[in-house]
Amino acid sequence: MTPQNNTPADLAHDARGVIGDILEDLRTSDIIINEVHKVRLPHHIVTGAEIKQVAIANGVPIQPDFLLTLERAAGREKQVGDGEKIVTVDGMKFTAIAGDDNS
Prior knowledge:
Number of helices: 2
Helix content: 25-40%
Number of strands: 7
Order of helices and strands: HEEEHEEEE
Strand order of the largest sheet: 2-1-7-4-5
Strand content: 25-35%
CATH architecture of the domain at 30-97: Roll
CATH topology of the domain at 30-97: Ubiquitin-like (UB roll)
Shape: elongated
Structural class: alpha+beta
Low-confidence stretches: none
């Protein structure tokens, strides 16, 4: 192994990278849509419409008019309206289905 000869500029660059990663984790939340699609939201406080917009932009096969449901503990669910603001945290799970889906 060769010794590392990091300059102060290298160390500062590395520190900025680590700090940037930490700040992004504090600003964003990673959620799951339809059990398999991981989506990173740009903010913790978002509307149902924003969740669907970000999901669609990330290739999740849903439409803006789909019904969005937050999956809660013990099998409980809460429908999230397009204009409704919610606070998200990493790992939250949502289901988005067509409004006329009777499954």
